[in-house]
Amino acid sequence: MAVDDDYIRNNPSDRVLKELMQAHGHEAEKRQALTVPQQELFLAFLKDHEVYSHWYPIFAVMIGTGLRVGEATGLRWCDIDLEEGIIDVNHTLVYYNHRNGDYKKGNYFGVNTPKTKAGKRLVPMLDFVKEAFLMEKANQQEMGVTCNVSIDGYTDFIFLNRFGETQHQGSLNKALNRIIRDCNYAQFEKSETPEVLIPHFSCHVLRHTFTTRMVEAGVNVKVIQDTLGHRDISTTMNIYADVTNELRQSEFKGLDSFFKTGRRNVEDDN
């Protein structure tokens, strides 16, 4: 908060907690990306649901771009080029909770510009991401929703609630909880033993899921780093290593089947 409010230039506590946790042998819980079937179920359920379909555009954009939550909620219409299929990521929407002090007490939104060159980047649109933006525009026109907020000089935000205000990460995560619950209920209504269920997850897992899809598709590590806005390649490589380890295990199941039968097991591939 002191850095954000320009009281100090650098945060003296940066990395201290990380080093302390490492010194005591603490291991962070590993985030699990959605599998391809889980991802497909999640998006399909959202897109056609009469209650939750208005949430489809923002979650589709997040899962198809790897944007951080604040980057996605902070997008403005002038930041995207639908004809060229490019998203210009140049700022982040942040939510402050200043309980003490004389400067802007209370809860409020602010806009931060990237602190590093890596944070400012151009992200190509996949086809379903472009479709999601167009759906959001059509939904807002149908409901008569327009942006009525200006945050640090930024306005015309893309993703809005029904009051024309920017989306809050807490609201998104609460919506995810309800969506996951009802999606799984619907799966159990179809079968007592559903083939696919969606695990509970937060918004950030959508970024991890996008990263995983890129690794699975064989995208170059440097391209992954640039797309995600990672300043340090080691951050990208840690994720890359985790995903490739899982892929290696999957591939070796097929290899084991090949050694035994002379052909790959189709079930292993699935």
What does this structure look like?
A hairpin with a 7-residue loop joins β3 (92-98) and β4. The protein is mainly α and 270 residues long. The chain has a domain at 32-198: hpI Integrase, Chain A, CATH 1.10.443. Helix content is 48%, strand content 9%. The radius of gyration is 21 Å and the shape is globular.
CATH architecture tag of the domain at 32-198:
Orthogonal Bundle
Strand order of the largest sheet: 1-2-5
Helix proportion range: 40-55%
- The number of helical runs is 10
Main pleated-sheet profile: 3 strands, antiparallel
Let me know the CATH homologous superfamily of the domain at 32-198. Intergrase catalytic core
Q: Which whole number gives the mean pLDDT?
A: 86
What is the CATH level 1 assignment of the domain at 32-198? Mainly Alpha
Rg over CA atoms, rounded to whole Å, is: 21 Å
Secondary-structure-based class equals mainly alpha
